Amino acid sequence: MSDERREILKMIQDQVITPEEGQRLLGALDAGGGASSKAPLAPRPPQPPSSAQARFVHISVASSGGERLEVNLPLKLGKFALKLIPEDTRDEIEDRGIDLEDLAACLNEELPDGPLLEYSSSDGSRIEISVA
Fold first, then answer.
1. How many Å separate Cα 74 from the centre of its chain?
2. In 3D, which of 86, 81, 63 has the Cα closest to residue 131?
3. Strand partners, 60
4. 28-67 pLDDT per residue, tens
5. What is the domain partition of the chain in residue ranges?
6. Among 8, 25, 72, 118, which residue's beta carbon has the most beta carbons within 10 A?
7. Looking at the whole model, is its pTM more than 0.70?
8. Cα distances (angstroms) measured from residue 73 to each of 16, 88, 92, 102, 121
9. Tell me: the pLDDT tens digits for 1-15?
10. CB 104 within 8 A of CB 59
């Protein structure tokens, strides 16, 4: 079992995410990133915080072909979510001077609400990552 799969299952067990959210994440992981999947995930608003101030990372990926991926994840899963970005898109982002490893490291720190990353490629693909 992969570390990512184990982490998702632990978050379900610890009630950080719902079983339905865990199932969606596991499905995206099994699909090899989900961005090229024919059945994109529907956006889901963040759940109200249960005890402490739960915060979410919202990731929106739109391909030039019209496919969309919308994911709302607890901030604690943000580093995992960055792994869902397709490799060719990662290369393009890094070619533009955006270091995804630095972005992942920032997710461990206190972040203000709002956009973290907005990216548009020459072919019309778009990625947005924000905190709410």
1. 9
2. 81
3. 70, 128
4. 877 765 444 444 445 555 555 444 456 787 888 888 888 8
5. 3-131
6. 25
7. no
8. 10, 23, 24, 19, 24
9. 678 888 888 888 888
10. no
